[in-house]
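FORM 7B: Structural annotation worksheet

SECTION A. Query
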Amino acid sequence: MYERFAHEYASHAEDSAYNALYDRPAMLGLAGDVRGRAVFDAACGPGFYARELLERGARVTGCDVSPTFVDMARARCEGLADLRVHDLAEPLTWVPDDSVDLVLFALALHYIDDRVGLLREFRRILTSHGAVVLSTEHPFMHWVRLGGSYFTQVQVEESLDPDRDWPIRAWRRPLTAVCADFREAGFVIEELLEPRPVPEMAHRYPEDHAQLERLPAFIAFRLLPV
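SECTION B. Predicted structure
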């Protein structure tokens, strides 16, 4: 979906309120100390996480379905990460069992049709002491934006940004259904986080800061295999 507007999105996300000052701080906080650890960046996008993880001392592999994103991520990581074009609808056959200490999966779960299947792949590649950290759109925000029943489970087509022609297709699902997928795939929730905007956002993006202090846009989890 992102391929047609990959360069525009990358320029936007590098320093945007919701990406740079909301999701990334929350996810990197959940990831914790990654020095010397093997991290798989699933749906790596243009490589903002991969680069940061490398700088924090991780060994990084990852993938994205967009060839443009993967090219951008490889360049951003200066060849230090093993990043490949791969559709997460397909098994991660090139990643060995029990080879990854951490899977990072930022803002992409809601695009996946077979979420349990993918989560089981993450569980397969994780070491016994590994973890998954992931973020997704907060189910409550779907209801705020789209109305109807909060408990609706349906695929929705809309623009990623209301002011741009960035069409995406994502699943609208209640929190109960999201958490049920984790359990079915063999994970327990170690931590659930409804992020708060970092203080810097109040000065640079005051309207976004005020909105996010009222309503959470995203929700993030740290999952452990059982």
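SECTION C. Observations
Residues 2-225 form a domain with the Rossmann fold fold (CATH 3.40.50.150). The mean pLDDT is 96.

SECTION D. Sign-off
Analyst initials: ____
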